[in-house]
Specification:
The complex is a heterodimer. Chain A is mainly alpha-helical. Chain A has a domain of 226 residues. Helices cover 74% and strands 0% of the residues of chain A. By secondary structure, chain B is an alpha/beta fold. Classes of the chains: A mainly alpha, B alpha/beta. At the A-B interface, helix 1, helix 10 and helix 11 of A face helix 10, helix 11 and strand 20 of B.
Chain lengths: 371, 520
């Protein structure tokens, strides 16, 4: 038991140290900006955790990035860099609006699952395209998913202006956003259940996201599918030897990854924004998801605290601004955390790479014991 | 004899393990001193300390009687200590000369140009001085393994090495090349060089060395004069108990044909024909060995049989069923067990736990998984059983496979493949990197498999292993089978000649001539 605890510590030490360093560097920057870091961080915590409404605000920020974080994590586990969380999020969001509008007569408890499935499928298909290209033709998923991001955005913008525009569906003046989804499609606000959440926009989507995180943990670590995805991610040649198809699992991982990012898009529409706006830029949740997965060490349950951290940084920045600290400080903190986590992981991969190169598994950066 | 080198009370502690425990080692001028020990006994650690790759936790090194502090390979090289690694450190697309002078290239015009002329002359001079013939202009990728090793030795000599450390130098050589190496090393000692040879092969100790130091579990067992010892004594000292170096197997009439290969052609990754129209059968109740020097098509042959590589033409059948071009999963399900030659690339997923590795290939089968959900209680129980049955040395089944030593990783793969009780077991270098005790174990299991009327296809680079185990031996050379001989009739000389490309008839003649010479 003691050794297992030690193992847990040896794994957790990386992100925890990175987070600590991030906040220390942030403190220096705050001092450079002429403020007191303690006041700043007090404001950060006050703004994000101190009261139920402010915690609620944090929660609604956590919801989509937890899901896109899970999306990135499952990609990482299969050795894939799904940078297309953005596009998958966007197609899912627009698909959700479209389907919600088409089925607006359905009751809440039927429409909600339909829309969640819609979002997951739309994102899954978008991720799956990159998955098939990688599996069948070996085309690098980084390139295809980046391209698909913009394809998704302009497709969405086109649909916003045409098919789903209030001018077409509601006989109103043309506008820069779609019609809103019907009441029955909207997720319940937390303040309806617990009035103490007050002004917060937090919604029940957070429970779905956490549920999905647990589900993904189960899939990754307790099912043959997860076993195979992880095997392919670590060592495609050994997987092949063990009868595991790397093409099949690459596709499945991209499909699931896309589905999770899609779920983020659907839930964001259903819980918070209710419509899709025409936009010149990608929403950014997919990219934040990559950060969440990195800090969460690609572990579905690790993504929960990681998403919470980024949610706190995002939401707390408002209170910090009120205390006179530029909100860019939080961007610096996130960046430093990322640099440290990614840097440490990179070092690890370089080590593994050299071990492979040297064949005999000889140490490069550290001494490995011989038994 | 004056002592060139003395290592006194060297202790090296890695987290949790004492790799070297108060080790004393000395080297006399002009001798070949073998450091003998099993894998993981600490011999490479000791030499890495001498070469500056590791720092000793405590202890002292004396060079020509003076205490020295070796902080890195550069210190070692400056003192005149050179190391030839097991895996060659050569630039494949450089010439012999370029490789030898790498790091100390002569230059013209204040370092603007390489002075290849001078470089070639120095190389020629060094190679003439020591009688190591090489073509200075040949590319490394075009020369044989034996020659590459010669280049490695020249490289250390060029740097002025006086003490040479050779780490498992014979692992990649044919028997004839091993003999040549022996001559080269003798010559070097006559030129005043002193040589440390790291090995776990007992026969080489006897044929090549003046003295031998046996190391076991980090401690020195004894240092002996080679002429005062024998192979059984050394084996016992090395393992700590008496071991049988040859396996007994009873005569047995093989049964039906299990694996049948007809005119198989396979290309390698560079799209050259690596296997050229090979045919043979493996029967139930026999061990059929494919012997040969590394890189003669063995890997492609095995990968084609297991579905990991495409076959160009030809037919592979298992128990009468055509399995040519089947996916790996189908081949496994047809009852094939496979011990791959490269355990890091194929055999294990190093980052996964040992328990998860011990089910790779049947991870989706009950009782380990039902309806896609894995039963980790069963998986861990399975792992514990195999760990104890196969003596895999590990703290528990949750550690990553990568944290085990090479020998234990190999044991884990063997355990996993034997557990399946396959109709056909393809064992590709199954004892690579194993210690003597473990080799005995694996050999006995292979024979047991044969005695249970299963077919075993053994692909091995170790002639001793092949001759010891096989009922029939096929020798492969440049993708072709040079001939198939009965195991009990095979001689090392004959197989060695065939491994170097002689036809079976030539090899038999050669073997005879050899015997006549001996009689004369």
């Amino acid at each position: 038991m003691k050794t297992r605890l030690l193992n847990v510590w040896s794994v957790l030490k990386l992100p925890l140290v990175a987070i600590l360093v991030g906040f220390v560097v942030g403190a220096f920057c705050i001092m450079l900006a002429g403020s007191n870091p303690l006041t700043a961080y007090a404001a950060l915590l006050k703004g994000s955790l101190a009261s139920l409404p402010s915690f609620g605000e944090t929660l609604y920020k956590v919801t989509p990035i937890l899901l896109t974080g899970l999306a990135a994590a499952i990609g990482f586990r299969c050795g894939l860099f799904n940078i297309g969380g953005e596009g998958q999020y966007v197609v899912a969001a627009i698909a959700t609006v479209g389907v919600a509008w088409s089925f607006q007569g359905l009751p809440h408890f039927i429409l909600v699952p339909i829309l969640l499935i819609t979002g997951a499928l739309a994102g899954g298909v978008w991720g799956g395209i990159a998955g098939i290209l990688k599996a069948k033709r070996g085309i690098n998923e980084v390139i295809t998913t980046i391209m698909l991001n913009w394809t998704a955005l302009y497709l969405s913008n086109y649909l916003v202006r045409t098919l789903l525009n209030p001018s077409r569906l509601l006989d109103k003046l043309p506008s820069g956003h779609t019609v809103a989804v019907p009441e029955a499609a909207r997720l319940m606000k937390l303040k309806v259940i617990i009035p103490a959440f007050g002004y917060s926009s937090a919604h029940t989507g957070i429970f779905i996201a956490i549920g999905v995180a647990v589900l993904m943990w189960f899939i990754l670590f307790k099912t043959t599918l997860g076993y195979e995805i992880r095997a392919v991610g670590f060592n495609p040649t050994a997987s092949e030897y063990g009868g595991i198809s790397s093409a099949k699992n690459t596709f499945l991982a991209m499909f699931i990854s896309g589905g999770l990012a899609g779920l983020a898009g659907a839930i964001q529409i259903m819980g918070l924004v209710y419509m899709v706006n025409q936009s010149p830029e990608l929403p950014g949740y997919g990219f934040t998801g990559l950060c969440v997965a990195l800090v969460g060490l690609s572990h579905p349950l690790g993504c929960i605290p990681a998403a919470l951290l980024f949610g706190i940084l995002d939401n707390g920045s408002r209170q910090m601004q009120l205390a006179g600290i530029p909100k860019e400080i939080n961007a610096i903190i996130s960046a430093v955390i990322l640099v440290f986590v990614a840097g440490a992981l990179l070092l690890k991969y370089i080590n593994v790479y050299f071990e492979k190169k040297r064949g005999a598994g000889k140490p490069r950066f550290k001494e490995v014991r011989e038994v | 004899m004056p002592k060139v080198l003395e290592m006194k009370n060297i202790t090296k502690v890695f987290p949790g393990v004492v790799a070297n425990d108060k080790v004393n080692f000395d080297l006399e001028k002009g001798e070949i001193h073998v450091l003998l020990g099993e894998n993981g006994a600490g011999k490479t650690t000791l030499m890495n300390i001498l070469y500056g790759l590791y720092q000793a936790t405590s202890g002292e090194i004396y060079f020509h009687g003076e205490k020295v502090d070796i902080k890195g390979p550069n210190d070692a090289i400056n003192l005149g200590i050179g190391m030839v690694h097991q895996h060659f450190m050569l630039v494949e697309n450089f010439t012999v000369t370029e490789n030898i002078v790498l790091g100390s290239e002569p230059s013209k015009a204040n370092g603007l140009y390489l002075d290849m002329e001078t470089a070639r002359n120095t190389v020629k001079e060094v190679s003439d001085n020591f009688g190591l013939k090489v073509d200075p202009n040949a590319l490394i990728q075009d020369i044989s393994v034996g020659l590459s090793q010669r280049v490695e030795i020249l490289k250390t000599l060029h740097k002025g090495a006086e003490v040479l450390i050779l780490d498992e130098p014979t692992a990649v050589l044919t028997p004839q090349e091993i003999d040549e190496l022996g001559v080269i090393l003798k010559n070097l000692t006559q030129e005043g060089k002193s040589i440390i040879l790291i090995t776990h092969k007992l026969k080489e100790v006897l044929s090549m060395s003046d003295r031998v130091t046996v190391i076991r579990r980090g401690k020195i067992v004894d240092t002996l004069k080679t002429k005062d010892t024998n192979i059984d004594q050394l084996a016992e000292m090395m393992v700590g108990r008496s071991v049988k170096l040859t396996s007994d197997k009873e005569d047995k009439t093989p049964g039906d044909v299990i694996l049948s290969i007809e005119n198989l052609v396979v290309k390698d990754t560079r799209k050259y024909d690596a296997v050229k129209s090979i045919s043979f059968d493996v029967k139930a109740g026999e061990i059929f060995a494919v012997a040969g020097v590394d890189g003669n098509g063995q890997k492609e042959l095995v990968e084609a049989l297991t579905g990991l590589t495409k076959t160009v033409s030809g037919k592979v059948s298992l128990c009468g069923k055509d399995i040519t071009g089947n996916k790996p999963k189908k081949v496994l399900e047809a009852g094939v067990g496979h011990i791959p030659e490269d355990r890091h690339k194929r055999g294990l997923i190093l980052q996964n736990t040992l328990a998860e590795n011990l089910i790779l290939g049947y991870h989706y089968c009950p009782p380990f998984a039902r309806k896609g959900v894995m039963n980790y209680a069963k998986i861990n129980e399975h792992a514990r059983t195999l760990i104890s049955e196969y003596d895999v040395r590990t703290p528990n089944e949750y550690v990553t496979a990568g944290s085990l030593s090479g020998g234990n990783q190999q044991k884990a793969i063997i355990a996993r493949e034997f557990y399946k009780d396959p109709v056909l077991l393809i064992a590709s270098q199954p004892t690579r990197g194993l210690d003597v005790g473990a080799i005995e174990f694996v050999h006995n299991r292979l024979i047991e498999q044969r005695d249970n009327n299963k077919a075993v296809l053994l692909v091995s680079l170790e002639l001793d292993e092949v001759m010891n185990l096989a009922d029939r031996i096929a020798v492969i050379y440049q993708g072709e089978i040079m001939g198939i001989v009965e195991g009990k009739d095979a001689t090392e000389r004959q197989l060695g000649l065939m491994m170097a490309g002689a036809s079976m008839e030539e090899a038999i003649e050669g073997g005879k001539a050899d015997n006549e010479n001996k009689i004369a």
